[in-house]
Amino acid sequence: MELHKYTKEVLEKFLVANKGLPEYQEAATNILTSLDKYIAEHPEFEEKSLLERFLMPERFIQFKVLWTDDSGKIQVNNGYRVQYNSAIGPYKGGLRFHPSVNESIIKFLGLEQTLKNSLTTLNMGGGKGGSDFDPKGKSDNEIMRFCQSFMTELYKYIGPNKDVPAGDIGVGGREIGYFFGQYKRITGDFSGVLTGKGLSFGGSLARKEATGYGLCYYASEALSTILHTDFKGKKVVISGSGNVAIYAAEKATALGATVIALSDSNGYIVDNNGIDLEVVKQIKEVERGRLSSYVERAGKGSYHAGTYGKEGIWSIPCGIALPCATQNEIGLDDAKALVAHGVKAVFEGANMPSSSEAIEYFIDHEVVFGPAKAANAGGVAVSGLEMAQNSERLSWSFEEVDEKLHAIMKEIFANGYKHTLKYGKNVYDLKTGSDIAGFEKVAEAMLAQGI
Ligand code: NDP
Ligand code: 2IT
Predict the structure, then answer these.
(1) What tens digit of pLDDT does each residue of 152-198 get?
(2) Among residues 116, 128, 284, 441, which one is catalytic?
(3) Other C-beta atoms lying within 10 Å of the C-beta of residue 426
(4) 241 alpha carbon – ligand 1 mean position (Å)
(5) DSSP 195
(6) Among 106, 97, 104, residue whose Cα is nearest residue 132
(7) Beta-carbon neighbour count of residue 317 at 10 Å?
């Protein structure tokens, strides 16, 4: 597709300035491609250099994290926080602990988060952070020491009205608890500076479930509006078996689907009668173990070593696919296999799990495509609700939070779809519509606030 002159110029400059940061380049290219027609309609964006301003993070912080392992050896890791955009609210976004974390991953996630948070209808800017620390195989004491050291630097940059981190891959309730304790120790402040907290110190009910449940609420809206169907009787394949995957599986099952596969970074399980989620929760949430023990524990199903590629999880025939592990887990060949086996809809629980070619392929083959920033926004939406509860020093019931989450996901779909009908390639193209819907509010706020 030939881009409008201004979009093209900005993108070309961006790609040169950010060479060596492939995920970041991919996210920016995807977004600018979606926004192109909308940009062409708004000459004031070029006059005010708005796209260049939007793409440049407000601040990128990199720091050293030193800690001692259980043998007494000093270990060194990188810590990061990108404060991407604060036009519509304080920076907000998760922290990821994974060996693959680097500048490119953090910046792509921060850019995506900016538009995602705008879609939630709540006032949150975009941020993201993390470390190349690998939590796998670490003792609880090592995790605590690492989190304390990480926060000893990060605390300088965050605050309940400034920047509010949360979890992401490798960071869940346990880590948020250690961060919170260290922030309070250093500052003497008991405040809502993090979300995903424990329920006994200001956490919100339904935050743990929010991303996965929200994904299924969004999917239900899309399925009923575009395909006049729902989850009932559908076979669903979900990658990952972490926070997002587990609660997506729980809600999809409650809505009448059969979840036939889940994965971790070593392999995947298939159970055609439906995965036993209680067994998965015990393995992954309680024991922090591997899915390879599922078959023996559940007494059913099969385990397959290896994750993606020809014999990987996307080769399993299904009606609905929910990628919920990590970025770039669905390439063009995976998209072709899914379509050949009859997939009707793909909703992204993870951030940027599908490559640009895979997205194009889905949309061109009339597969409903729900992009990450819309489909997985339920997690950060309930983080926003946790901030609201902390501000009023009250806690809402599970039902109240869940109801608000449901309403937000319906609104995210409706707003994105409205723009899809106007700007999308076809009705299956929720990517274009959601990108424009998210950008609209950020652009308006940036223009109103001047430079
Ligand atoms: P978790 O750490 O709880 O789980 C991640 C899961 O994905 C694990 O099963 C993990 O396997 C697997 N995984 C991670 N990296 C890889 C990899 N490189 N290759 C194969 N498998 C991998 O993270 P979350 O569930 O919180 O996050 C999953 C995705 O959802 C991420 O993209 C995240 O950014 C996104 N997301 C998370 C939100 C949240 O609120 N937590 C909100 C919105 C989006 P293993 O167990 O072997 O490590
Ligand atoms: O990608 C995401 O939206 C998250 N990891 C959740 C961020 C948050 O602040 O709750």
Answers:
(1) 999 999 999 999 999 999 999 999 999 999 999 999 999 999 999 99
(2) 128
(3) 12
(4) 8
(5) S
(6) 97
(7) 13
